[in-house]
Each structure stands twice: as structure tokens, then as C-alpha cells.
Sequence to fold (726 residues):
Amino acid sequence: MLKSFNAALSSLARDQPFDRFADMAELMLDAAVAIVDLNPEPVLVGRGRAASAITPWVVELALNAETVDLAALRDGEAALAGAPLPFAPPFARVVKIELTSGARRNLCLVFPLAPGLLVRRAKRFGAEGNRFLGEFALIQRYRAELRRHVKMFGHVERTAKIGVWEADPHSREQDWSDEVFRIHGLPTGLAPLIDETIASYPEPGRQRLAQAFRDLEHSGTVCDLTLPYVTPDGIERTVHIIGEMQRGGEQGDRLVGIFQDRTTQHKANERLWWMANHDSLTGLPNRALFADRFRLALQRRRRTNALVCLVLVDVDDFKRVNDTLGHAAGDELLKLVAKHLNEGTRANDTVARTGGDEFSIVLEDLRSHEDVEMVLERLRSALRVGLVWGERSMHVTLSAGVAIAPDHGLTEHDLTTAADLALYRMKATPEPALEIYRPVLGQIADERNRALARARDALLEGRIVPAYRPKVEVATGRVVGLAAGASWADGGVSPGADWAVIVEDADLAVKIGHHVTKRAVQEIGALSRALGEPFALSVNASVAELMRSDFLERVASLSYERLPGDPAITVEIAESILLDDGLGRLAARLRQAADAGVRFALGDFGQGYGSLVHASTLPLSEVRLAKRLLADIDADPANMTVVRAIIAFARALDLDLVFDGIATEADARALAELGVSFAHGPYFAPALPIDALRAYLSGENGIVDRRHPGPIEPPPGGLVCDATLS
Fold:
């Protein structure tokens, strides 16, 4: 096919049709013949052998001599003598005969050898000449079309990077288009033999290509392969090869097909696959790819009986880094963690980022538990990351949970559950830690789930109610306010453990907090109206509540339910929560709520952290000092100076001072010496449900004169504990 195509084009390029026509005319007319093309200007396009001697004068004669109109001549007229010329014989005369075909005009200059031309022969020559011009015009059009198609074919080959090939299955010779040479990095010329082409492909593609050609030649199976190829210049390419057998035909059996350069598509597909299966930030495999590799590792384990380890890793305090240093620092931390984990594992292990700050590792080909311990020991060293960001630096720890197949399960689900339980256990430790799953961790998880179920049931059944700690004016013993916290009525549960579980479950903590706050507003409002004395109400806010965008707006709306003249609701915030507010979003919301009438108290004031900064920059109306400050005074009287300075600072900011946890008369005397105005604590009253509180405030518990406080026993009725969700 290619050979015939190129041969036809070459033949047309070499053909000189006007010379051959002039030779024919010389025989027919017994004269010398030259042909001049008049479009657009006269130019010699052909001549017979006899006319070669007069070539220099042909164009000039074509312009000056008169043309004979053959159509006007009759056959019976005498022979044409032609116009005389200043040439020596035998070319003493010229006859100009015009030939036309469509818009094309050619002029034949005939130089008779005899005294003249026969009219009959001249007319016949004219007819033949016109037909020749018509055929020549068709050939020219065909040639132009052929060249255009050749040019288009080459353009298509270059654009699509597809080259055409054909071969003789017997001689093994090939014909290649130019693009096939380019694909293989070879200069255009003689194509190599089939076997030489196969040998140029690297293994293992070479064997596949050789087998495909054998199948193609013997059974006619179509060859369709995509193989890697390296050019002589070392350029890596991906080549798609298609071939089929064409039997019979003029040239016998032929192998025909295409070579296509698919390097760009292959690289694009590889890039798309990489993006779909990897984390763009760290470059690690993502959850989908990790799940596939984890599944394959477990399948291989069944064949080899080796151990497989699943390690789940979590970045401790990742949110704190994001909030204090910004998200760019958080991204840098994740990249450092990925680097540490890769360095802490082997080359054949898989480290993946499977969540925001969650990483997963699968360790394969572990022959014994000793091998497991060696690999995990190496991983333990990678569980501390030092982050330097600008002028600040911090150490971030990682927690890891491990599950081993087949010890802790055989399926992906069982191993993931076991490793997650071990990780959950490690999150409670302040140091980087790695825990291997133990059955007892499953029991702890079951107990946690049962505790959450009990808490949800208690909330639905109304057994979680507010309990109130009276806020007492130290000098007079008068109750001036009430701090509401969640209390779990008697139901045969373990409240201490259950409260810890509730705090960890953000959704449940928010529901309980909202329920307790709303009920406290209703109960204290009714109590204030019944006793004719407004009581200030404060509620404790958990981390989960404050992180909700609508919490402070909800508290502000509850404030409107209180009677005119009632003090605004005070929300107590633990200072540790503010430390996680590196970007100041929570502080901004506090200021908005303060403008809406909500008061705020800062808990654990004086415990360190940023107490002085927060007290001076946030919209606070009250600070609550921990009882530990009193213990510090008892341990070292010199600490009295520090405590007095803290109290003086709070007074300078016009903040109410409340001491928490006053349990003894000695504590109360110390408060009096310090000049502290308000206090909470069991010395004055324990946390009381609403009925016991009403009796206490009415003097029905034996404390008639609240100006002289004294300890009372917790009221009967099954109150098991009181707690705040902090």
C-alpha cells in the first residue's frame, strides 16, 4: 500500500508530458515542435527533439508571429507554408497553432521541415492537442489532490502521533511511514525487519510483542498491545501497536497496522490515577488505595501464613496547631508526620493519610512476633515531631494503635476495630505512645457504649436534672446566686465514669447542656418569683457547646425568659478552652454575646496559662479562683503575697471574685482574711436539686439565718452525684 502510494507520487513528479507530446507532434507533422504556455506569461513548457536547436527564439516568436486559425481552414486548401523566419534551412518558417482546454491556453510553434504543412494533418494535430490538454488538466488536478492528501496524511500522522506500517510476512521486510520512524527515534529511510523491530523493545514487552506477531502470522489473531519503548537517544515512550493480516490481493499476504505514540496519554492517565489514589498534600496513598493494599496484604497472608500489622496513627493537638499557628502550619505538620512515618517503616510497608490528621500503616511479611516488635520499636521513634514555624517551635506527639492478623482478627473490619480501640486508649496519654490491642480494650469500649446508652436513656427519662451550688456572700452568709450543673438522679448507674464518657461525646454533651440550662432558667425563675428575691444564675459551658455556632445565641435567648430586674445569665468558661482559640474566633463570639446581655466568668483563675491576659482582654464580669490557691497558702505562707496580688488584679479590673470548693471553716476564715466576697463549696451547701434548694433557701433544713453559714448534709432522695460538663 505505502510502496504503491509513494511510487505513484514519484512517477508523477518525474513525468514530462509536454516533451512527449511535442515528440509525437513532430512525427505527425514532419516538423520541429515547441510548446509555449501562455498563462499568465509565455514560457516554454515542452519541445521535441528536432526543436532543441531553436529553443532560444521560441518565446520571442510566440509573442510576435501570427496564429493560424485551424477552424477557418478547409481541407482542400494548399499546404500551410508558414511565416518566413531569418533562420538558415531547414527551419525557415513557423506556423503557430493555439490549443485550448477550459481556461488553459497553449501555443504550439511548428517549424516545418518540408515546404509546408498539410491542413488535414494540422487539424488532426489540433484535435489531438486539445484532447491532450484536457487529459493533462485532469492529471494536474489529480496530482494536486494527491499532494494535498499526502500533506493531510502527514499532518494527521504528526497530530495523532500515528504511523502506518506494512510488512511481507515471508521476507520480513517492512514499509514505514515517516511518523513510525519518529516514534522509534530513527532517521527516515529503510525500515528495519520485523524481527529487528521486535528486538528493539525492552523486556518483558519484547516477549509479548514476539508472541503477538506469531499469533498474527499463524492464526490471524489481531495484534493489539501497549508497550514501553526506549529510543536510541534514551527517550522513554509508550507505544500502542496494532496489526492484522490481509490475505490475497495483488501483492499476496501482507501484515498491516499502525504504531501510535501514547506517551502523553499514558503519563496523563498515570497522573489521574495518582491524584485519585494519593493525598495531594503529603503524597501518601489515600484511604481508597490503602484499603485496596490492606485487602491484598490480608489475601497474601492467607497464602504465606505471615503476620500483618495494622497501625492507626492520630496527631495529638492538631487542632491546637491549626488554631494557634494557622492552617499553613498545620499543613506543614502533616507533611512532617508523613516524612517521620515513612522513615519509621520499611520500604515495602504502606503509609497512608486516611483522614484530616489520621494516618494508617500496614506492615507486611512479618514472620514472627519478634519481627513485629522490632518494626514497631522503629516506629515508636517516629511518634514525636518537632515543628518550627517562623520564630515559634513546638513538639507534637502522635498516638498509635496496633492490631495484628491473625491474633486480633482476620478481616479488615475486625482489625480496624481492634486498632481503633488501642488508639483510643492511647489518646488519653500526654506522651507519644503506641499500644497493641488487648482484649480488655474491647471490654472498656463495651462499657463506654453502655454508659452512653445509659446517659441517653437518663436524658430521655428526665433523670438528668440541674443541681445548684449556692453562691454565698462570705461576710453575711447570704445566698446571692446559683451555679447550675448537670446532676444524675439515682438510677443504679456509675455516675463518675458515665460523666467522663459524656464529656467525650460532643453530641450528647451538647444535648445535656442545653436541657440543663433551659430547665435551670425555668426553675430559678419560678423560685425567684416564689421567694420574691432575684437570684443570679450561672451555667457551665462544655467545650462541645462552645464550639457550636448557635450556643451563645441560644443562651442569650434564654436570658429574655427571665423577669425584668433578674440578673443576666452568667456562662462559666474553662480557661483551657480559650487556649485552643488561637485565631480568636471564640473570643469574637463572646464579645457579641456580651453585647446581647450574656455575662461570662473565667474558671480556674490563677492556675497559670494566660489568666491575666484573658481577664484583661475578654468581656468578663467574674473570675473564679480555685481552692488550690488556699492550699498553696497552707503549704507556704509566702504564697499569700501571690494570692493577694491575683485578688488585687481582679479588683482593679472590676471583676467579681468567687472562690470554689470551700469545704472547711478554716477555708472560710482564710477567705475573710483575704477580703474575698463570694464563695461556693460544701461548707455552705452541697449541690442541691430544685426541691432541696427551695427548702434550703426557705430555712427548712435547719439553717434559718443564712447570715451564719454552716455545713449541711446532702438532702435525701437519691441524688447520686453532681457534675458540670467541662
Residues 4-14, 491-495, 700-726 have pLDDT under 50 and may be disordered. The chain is about 45% helix and 25% strand. The longest helix spans residues 119-160.
